[in-house]
Amino acid sequence: MKPILGVEQLHVGYQKDGAHIEVLKGVTFSLQQGESLGIVGESGCGKSMTSLAIMGLLKNKGLRATQGQITWEDKNLLNNRAHDWRKLRGKEISMVFQEPMTALNPLITVGNQISEQILAHEPVSRRAAKLRAIEMLRQVGIPSPETRARSYPHELSGGMRQRVMIAMALCCHPKLLIADEPTTALDVTVQAQILDLLQRLQQQTGMSLVLITHDLGVVSQVCQRVIVMYAGRVVEEATRDQLFQQPLHPYTIGLLESVTSLDKGSERLYSIPGRVPTPGETIVGCAFQDRCPYAAEQCRRQQPQLTETEDGRKVSCLRYEDITEGVA
Amino acid sequence: MASEFAQHVLMDVQGLQKHFSVKTGWLGRLSKQRAPVVKAVDDVSFSVRRGETLGIVGESGCGKSTTGRALMRLIEPTAGKVYFEGKDLVHLTPREMKQARRQMQMVFQDPFASLHPRMTIGATIAEPLVIHGVGTAVEREERVEQLLETVGLAPAMKTRFAHEFSGGQRQRIGIARALALHPKLVICDEPVSALDVSIQSQVINLFQDLQAQFSLTYLFISHDLSVVRHISDRVGVMYLGKLVELGTAEELFRHPAHPYTQALLSARPQISPSPSGTERIILQGELPSPLNPPLGCRFHTRCPYKLARCESEEPALSLIQPGHQAACHLVTA
User: Fold this and answer.
1) ipTM passes above 0.85
2) pTM here?
3) What is the CATH number of domain A1-88+215-328?
4) Cβ-based contacts of A255 with chain B (< 8 Å)
5) B267, A188: Cβ pair inside 8 Å?
6) In whole angstroms, how far apart are CA B300 and each of B36, B61, B128, B229, B283?
7) Does A300 score more than 80 pLDDT?
8) Domain chopping of chain A, boundaries
9) Nearest residue in chain A measured CA to CA from B209
């Protein structure tokens, strides 16, 4: 089946003091219709940059895509002009951000913010748009939506605001929803409600979902397929089951081992030594070499490429076969 | 008996309360209504044993951070007693309290906000020593270097400023500062929440190493259940200003008694190769406003097992098993 979204060898960077600093160094992945894909990684790995690139929001941050392409329905989004983006954003591809308070306009009622978006994309009357906004609020589980539509963002709790963001993102029935850390600012019990809601809406509408998060638990709950990013590159791609049963990349292995869990006892945690390289740092070879317990001579010379394994997953490590076979 | 108790218990908290009155402005004063009161911490009692780690978990607004600060008297408790090695801290004069604070130090959540941007980190770590007049300048210098090494930083870094460090390193600096005076108790308020997973595990390990090395006692406040489970010997769960359950980590996580604890545990997204077979408990509704907490059991508005008496009668924290207390009519009945 042809993927709905294809990202190929995407390079993104910015200029600083006359130097070009790359934050995405050839990101490649694709997404099928109706699929839920998780993008995980720690701060600075480029996961949010990837979503901004898909939404055409790089310019606002002073960033530029220098190479590669993003294919959406046979068109390269990187060639889009401002007015193409306006037609696409919110209509075909929508996004939910981490902090709902900064993403909502504090001076407009939430009902009007949602109907504004409907009016921007569809030839409907104001009244029809308003009714649809209320219906959307009902669908995302907001109690007494008629009254709530007249509320301003500050009158709502964090969980409710995030529900409003989701209602707004889904009001024009997008084919793809990108959720960037949608529950990071929320408490666990509210987080469970929002994740449940996202999954339910995805099943109802058949849309595709890209969930960006640093929380491996969230990914394992919601996503069918996962990509792991490190220092601007995809280091591993696998189905959820494959990834959590047998991670291949040493970074993924380390991440999974360093997570505290309710089942593990209180034995000493594994921790990945060192720190994430800062953008602009030039590293010859694999970016993970200094933190990798398996790093060998070749890792310091050669940049590993994302390669497909026998069972259809992808990994970017020169030594993954040695590691899985226990030779390393 | 009493002396034995005192030997094991480092800090004993009895009926701690912190109420904040909400400012109403002149119109509110004119109308002569009583200013509304937020009961951030309402009648919380527990004790911290020597050498243990007591974890306090709860969601935002449950009063866990207020509890931590009230114990240090960084905010004055409204009522209650806090015995530290047998002395009631609440009634100490400011001068006596300053002395008492040598024994108890705090590590804060935000490593970006809790370090002075214009002080070198050497000066930051030496500050508690200066305040308490410990040692000569040369001795303090030595102590700073020693502390930096203890927390895994190079002593040469003491001349640098906070902004030159990453989040994990800054948290190490905050820990070094807390350890400067050889405290007995360290209150850690969300010390790893702002850190990435791989850095989080480094700092958690550091906390455990330091505890073993200096026989420290921790009060570890966090919203992250699995972090608390990992590091704590005993755990208390707070909801809307109340302590609703308290027990050994092992027992509390294996057999959570309070419905809120059960919901919290079930809500946490767990890493599992396939979605868990057991049905997750997803609480309906949101945290009620602490300005107007529900009568009776504060959890009754969201509790799936609510009884009639839960709406009117407040359950007290009572023993359900040796080493395990809960405040719920269902388990005590």
Assistant:
1) no
2) 0.86
3) 3.40.50.300
4) 197-198
5) yes
6) 22, 17, 45, 26, 11
7) yes
8) 1-88+215-328
9) A268
